[in-house]
Specification:
By secondary structure, this protein is of the alpha/beta class. It has helices at about 55-65, 90-100, 120-125, 145-150, 160-170, 175-185, 185-190, 200-205, 210-215, 220-225, 250-260, 295-310; strands at about 10-20, 25-35, 40-45, 70-75, 105-115, 135-140, 240-245, 265-270, 285, 285-290, 320-325, 330-335, 345-350, 355, 370, 375, 380-385.
Length: about 400
């Protein structure tokens, strides 16, 4: 396969400042091939510090293959000016950063965005703004509806996620790595009442975004303003998403893919059998998915960006738009739609013995869900079977 090779020596331009529309300056570390010239650019914005070792390793990997890589500290984080508030400024700041990149001597006219988790989040905040400089995106393991798929799934606050974000976005990466068990991962934290004071009891001060997340108890204008899934009609660039079966955002990512795929034929998604974190080997907990499960995510993104940013025919656009790993069979499968047209759904019923079976409760069996004042008929859970070919 004809892909960019790691043939370049590199150089680093440290802490270049990009001015945003409100005059706040954000810090950028730029990794480039040492040979002077113009190169396609990949942007990653992060609240977790650009000089975090995994970020540097990632940037060097791409720069060696002939890309300019921009690592940017989000507003109010580390070496960037301003006040950090999760999600709110990532779209406008990302838009202004692309414009800044377009003025640089090493810019060749093409920019891609990449990153997982918050590194994927900024891409969805940026995409609907219609920057003429954005060429292609590669978000991984992230959602677009911050209410229904993140902080308040089913309406209930996800306290572990919400509290963790409060702590990690208020502290340095090194503090979280070295001291998380003392300030976050302990029973005192999880038993804190009232919950609204988790911020004060954990880090000693009120945190505005945490208070907003707690007090906006229904889907209102606050959550709608952040919801990028509601603005997919404004996304006008090719996107490849990477989801994971044990990641909390897979359903959201598949919905996003389906919505975009109805309008554009340059949308792709692949689903791997892992969690929110990068896979290591073929084993996850007690499960071993076999050698075929191991996937080089950088290699997949290289195929994507070589095609869209360098014009190299890597074959990726000739393949079906969905590539997913079927657990149990432990095989990869290419698909063309989601949900699969041949999917079979099987209802499961919760019985009063707390068992879950395909058989509905008998006539003389009390419903599983009941109170002293009324009874509620058993309602089926639906299990979806991923069918084989044919």
């Amino acid at each position: 396969m004809n892909l960019s090779q790691p043939t370049h020596e590199i150089r680093v331009l440290y802490d270049l400042k990009a001015r945003m529309r409100d005059d706040v300056k954000l810090s950028n570390d730029v990794f480039l091939p040492r040979k002077p010239g113009r190169y396609p650019t990949i942007l990653l914005r992060t609240p977790y510090e650009t000089l975090h070792e995994p970020h540097i390793d990632w940037a060097v990997w791409w720069a060696k293959r002939g890309y300019a890589v921009v690592l940017q500290d989000c507003r109010g984080r580390f070496e960037s000016e301003g006040t950090f508030y999760p999600y709110r400024d990532d779209g406008p700041d990302g838009h202004d950063t692309l414009e800044w990149i377009s003025t640089q001597a090493w810019y060749d006219g093409k920019i891609g965005t990449s990153g997982r988790s918050y590194g994927g989040l900024f891409q969805w905040q940026l995409a609907p703004l219609g920057s003429p400089y954005l060429t292609a995106m590669a978000p991984q393991v992230i959602m677009g509806d911050y209410f229904g798929d993140c902080h308040r799934i089913g309406g209930a606050v996800q306290w572990a996620l919400t509290g963790f974000a409060t702590v990690i976005f208020s502290a340095s990466v090194s503090l979280m790595q070295l001291g998380a068990k003392h300030i976050f991962g302990n029973s005192t934290y999880y038993r804190q009442l009232p919950l609204i004071d988790i911020d004060v009891e954990t880090i000693g001060r009120e945190v505005p975004w945490y208070r907003d997340w707690c007090t906006h108890t229904v889907y209102d204008d606050y959550w709608h303003a952040l919801n990028t899934e509601a603005r997919l009609g404004d996304v006008q660039v090719p996107v490849v998403q990477q989801a994971a079966w044990y990641d909390p955002y897979t359903a959201s990512m598949l919905r996003t893919w389906s919505t975009l795929h109805e309008r554009r034929d340059d949308q792709k998604i692949y689903v791997i059998p892992w969690t929110h974190h990068l896979p290591e080997g073929s084993q996850l907990g007690d499960l071993d998915f076999g050698h075929d499960a191991v996937v080089n995510l950088r290699h997949e993104d290289l195929r994507w960006f070589d095609y869209w940013l360098k014009g190299i025919d890597t074959g990726i656009m000739a393949e079906p738009p969905i590539r997913l790993f079927v657990m149990g069979e432990n095989v990869w499968r290419n698909e063309h739609e989601w949900p699969l047209a041949r999917t079979r759904s099987t209802p499961y019923y919760l019985h009063n013995q707390r068992s879950l079976t395909p058989e509905p409760p008998g006539k003389n069996e009390e419903p599983a869900a009941s109170t002293t004042t009324r009874t509620t008929p058993s309602r089926p859970w639906v299990a979806t079977t991923l069918p084989g070919r044919g």
